[in-house]
Amino acid sequence: MTKTYVTQPFLPPLEEFMPYLEKIWQEKWLTxxxxxxxxxxxxxxxxxxxSHMSLFTNGTIALITALQALRITGEVITTPYTFVAxxxxxxWNKNNPVFVDIDPVTFxxxxxxxxxxxxxxxxxxxxxxxxxxxxxxxxxxxxxxxxGLKLIYxxxxxxxxSHNGESVLNQGDxxxxxxxxxxxxxxxxxxAIICKDEKLKQRIDYLKNFGFADxxxxxxxxxxxxxxxxxxxxxxxxxxxxxxCIASRKTIANHYREALxxxxxxxxxxxxxxxxxxxSYFPILIEKExxxxxxxxxxxxxxxxxxxxRYFYPLVSDFPMYRGLSSANAEKLPVAKQVxxxxxxxxxxxxxxxxxxxxxxxxxxxx
Length: 367
Ligand SMILES: *Cc1c(COP(=O)(O)O)cnc(C)c1O
What we know:
Elements: E1 4-5, H1 14-27, H2 35-48, E2 52-56, H3 59-69, E3 75-78, H4 85-92, E4 96-99, H5 111-116, E5 122-128, H6 137-147, E6 150-154, E7 162-163, E8 166-167, E9 174-178, E10 191-195, H7 198-207, E11 212-214, E12 217-218, H8 229-239, H9 242-260, E13 266-268, E14 282-286, H10 294-303, E15 306-307, H11 334-342, E16 343-346, H12 354-365
Parallel strand pairs: 1-15, 3-4, 3-5, 5-6, 6-9
Antiparallel strand pairs: 2-10, 7-8, 9-10, 11-12, 13-14, 14-16
Helix pairs in contact: 1-8, 2-8, 3-4, 3-7, 9-12
This protein binds pyridoxal-5'-phosphate.
């Protein structure tokens, strides 16, 4: 049998992309807010139910620019249970990350612990909707309001996720998205910042284009974060397939859920509210009662050419550039530590065949 990875990017039929490429070749407008870029910003905003969006060449540059746009300084409270880019964006801005432990059910920042970590140097909270599960946005906003902090969401996993009937991307001051090949919606590489007003979008648009406000005016030391016409064209075509992709993910997630719910020692995350999630990942926790350790199961699956991933292990706070921080001390992050030692993300992607999925399930249930 062929190798099964934790994810496999979705690609629309190649012949459907050719007319987009022909248009780019004819017009020779390759980047700098071209017509595909403008169309994607508008169509994607409508699809996601957000008012202002600025497209980026990838999610990490979007994150770094978002912090610049809000002029974040000093300490920023964030989660150790995420992809490294979240914390790296703080170091690139010379901000000081302060790690706070996660909630044992959602694996997102625990608001009670956030409040306890605030100091006079704190300027912002950088939270992540991990696996697309919404953070406790109400409590985080309350805390941000009381202490006068900015609230930024790394929503790289939360494409199309809603919460209480509204896009989760409308929460906080800003959200960022990633359209990397491994994400629910991909433009090979890509990303976006979602914000709530025209003035902030304007500043973000200047910042992603070297700070140019017009031909002769540079208003800030901006960066080159622009999405190209090639990426934007692919995004437009992907939009035709996104509902189908998310529906397939849901079918696969439901099948795992049914098949694994009674396996002793396997803990599943609670299913999100109907129609609100995106099933971007399928994490399971391998608990003490299971016959194998997490790493033994990980290896067993590899022997069968199934490449599950330990997202997120190690914790970001354990990497060399962070582990010296006092907030990185594992004793202060017991929930994150335990989850990172038990978690395994199973393969989930629109083209995952049922036969492959059943094989994965059998290996897990037959130990
Ligand atoms: C993928 C990801 C990013 C980075 O996005 P890129 O588009 O790959 O730069 C940031 N944060 C999280 C949580 C991610 O999963």
